[in-house]
Design brief:
The chain is α/β, with parallel strands linked by helices. It has 4 helices and 7 strands, in the order βαβαβαββαββ. A hairpin with a 2-residue loop joins strand 6 and strand 7. Helix 2 packs parallel to helix 4. The termini are far apart. This is Thioredoxin family protein. Keywords: Redox-active center. Belongs to the thioredoxin family.
């Protein structure tokens, strides 16, 4: 599930989060944002509680858009302990995003396991 954050809740929900947060800057008029949304939901399902997915409406949160110097939408930022670890922007479609999300999963060694029908994710951060 993508939870919405705003300028008012960003510090608490993203910067102070004990787990990494993939912040998804989007806008209602952005067609590519709508196209990639299902992939982001799938990524969140695979990661479970190990990486949170937060959505930010770039039009309604102009201060955040300026702070993170958005050049295009959608833009994704992987933020861990208040620091931007990865920036994903300028991808051309679903395949580009899929590859980027797979790279994030590899970075954090997130593997899906099925244990009596329950899907879990395991996080093991590599200091590379």
């Amino acid at each position: 599930m993508v939870f919405s954050v705003s300028e008012r809740t960003f510090n608490q929900e993203v910067l102070a989060s004990p787990v990494p947060v993939l912040v998804y800057f989007e806008a209602p008029w952005c067609a590519l944002c709508r196209v990639i949304h299902p992939l982001l939901l799938q990524f969140q399902a695979q990661c479970g509680d190990e990486i949170k997915l937060a959505g930010v409406n770039a039009d309604q949160n102009f201060k955040l858009s300026n702070t993170y110097r958005l050049k295009s939408l959608p833009t994704l930022l992987l933020i861990e302990k208040g620091i931007v670890k990865q920036r994903l922007e300028g991808f051309c479609g679903r395949d580009d995003l899929r590859q980027a999300l797979e790279a994030i999963q590899l970075t954090y060694n997130i593997t899906n396991k099925t244990d009596t029908g329950i899907k879990t994710a395991e996080l093991e951060y590599n200091n590379v």
